[in-house]
Amino acid sequence: MTAALRPATRADLPAVLALIAGEDRVVDPAAVEVTEAHERAFAAIDADPRNEVLVLDGPAGDVIGCLQLTYIPGLGKGGAERALVEAVRVRADLRGSGLGRTLMRAALDRARARGCALAQLTSNKHRTDAHRFYTSLGFHPTHEGFKLPL
Question: Does residue 17 come out as left (phi exceeding 0), alpha (psi in the -120 to 50 range) or beta?
Answer without folding.
Answer: alpha
